[in-house]
Write a structure and sequence with these properties.
Keywords: Signal. This protein is α/β, with parallel strands linked by helices and 340 residues long. The chain is built from 10 helices and 14 strands. It has 2 domains: 150 residues, 3-Layer(aba) Sandwich (Rossmann fold); 134 residues, 3-Layer(aba) Sandwich (Rossmann fold). A 7-stranded mixed beta sheet has the order 2-1-3-4-5-13-12, with helices on both faces. The longest helix is centred in the first third of the chain and has 17 residues.
Length: 340
């Protein structure tokens, strides 16, 4: 009798530890086998703490954790220092997390530590870092970055009437996507609008710091009093360009660039930013985590699969790069449609 009770108790304990993967994890995949150990730990390492863009990304990562019953959360350095970000990844490797998601400040400097993570058997998914695709599991892009840059360049040219002096920002010269947008924009404008002149040797850097961007915009206006246009490949710089133009009541200098509705909305509606572009950071964080979970569960990432967020319903798989189609264009007519 005692032996029977022991057997029954063991079975009760065993069944009580079983957890089942959500049926919605991948639309077309069969139900995943039960997990009997622990919750997966999936961590997003964002570029910088205290930035509206990555505050929204955290929303998506944490929502994913709730939806799929995994331990998903986000961390980030207090500055845009690539070394600090790499050290955070080192700490996660030492901790032995199941998956690391990362939006690198400098993909090149992140390469050694991500190789180490892979050697330790940790799933690694990057976002905004195509150059790292060969060494990680997958890189997620919200769209083709060259297309995004051309759209920005076209908006600036139309706002400026196709001629005049302009300059602008990236978060940092090491940020791969920012430079992809800039280079595609430059190539397009040189070809299609030869009367437009890029006046600085290279784009300015703001390191995703609004105070730094605000001060630099003021300096640029003094340096180039005949400036006709500005772009921002960082949400911080575009927003600060709009703020400075509003403070000076200057609608002669046309502004376009990357920003969020919550950051640039008032400047767009008041006519101090002509157009902003973005994608939903929360969705990118959510989809990155879903890719990692699929890998952890042994499920394949396939061309055309549905990754459960708008713009990612039918992704394009190019080797180890996953492309969505999730750009958002913010104008006076569209900006109020969004609440992030």
């Amino acid at each position: 009798m005692k032996r029977l009770l022991v057997v029954v108790s063991v079975l009760i304990i065993a069944f009580s530890t079983l957890g089942f993967a959500p049926a919605s994890a991948v639309a077309s995949a069969p139900a995943a086998p039960a997990q009997a150990d622990k919750k997966y730990e999936i961590v997003m390492v964002a570029k910088m703490e205290g930035v509206s863009w990555f505050d929204d990304m955290r929303v998506g990562v944490e929502q994913f954790g709730k939806d799929y019953n995994v331990n998903a959360y986000q961390i980030a350095p207090d500055t845009g220092d690539p070394a600090k970000q790499a050290q955070m990844v080192e700490d996660l490797i030492a901790k032995g997390v199941d998956a690391i998601l990362v939006v690198p400040n400098d993909p090149k400097s992140m390469e050694p530590v991500l190789k180490k993570a892979k050697e330790k058997g940790i799933v690694v998914v990057t976002h905004e870092a195509q150059a790292l695709a060969p060494i990680v599991d997958y890189d997620l892009e919200a769209f083709k970055n060259e297309d995004f840059g051309v759209v920005m360049g076209k908006a600036l040219a139309e706002a400026m009437g196709g001629e005049g002096k302009y300059t602008g920002f990236v978060g940092a010269l090491t940020m791969e996507t920012h430079m992809q947008w800039f280079n595609a924009m430059q190539e397009y404008l040189k070809k299609e609008y030869p009367k437009m002149e890029f006046v600085s040797k290279q784009p300015y850097e703001d390191n995703n710091d609004e105070k730094a961007a605000y001060a630099k915009v003021q300096e640029i206006l003094k340096t180039y009093p005949d400036l006709k246009g500005m772009f921002g490949n960082s949400a911080s710089s575009t927003t600060m360009e709009g703020l400075v133009m509003k403070e000076k009541n200057n609608k002669n200098i046309k502004v376009v660039g990357l920003s969020l509705p919550s950051m640039a909305g008032e400047y767009i509606k008041d006519g101090f930013i002509q157009q902003a572009q973005c994608w939903r950071p929360a969705d990118a964080g959510y989809v990155s985590a879903l890719i990692a979970l699929n890998i952890l569960k042994g499920e394949k990432i396939t061309d055309g699969m549905d990754l459960k967020k708008p713009g990612y319903e039918k992704v394009i798989l190019d080797k180890k790069i996953i492309y969505g189609n999730a750009p958002l264009i913010l104008t006076k007519d569209t900006v109020d449609k969004y609440d992030f």
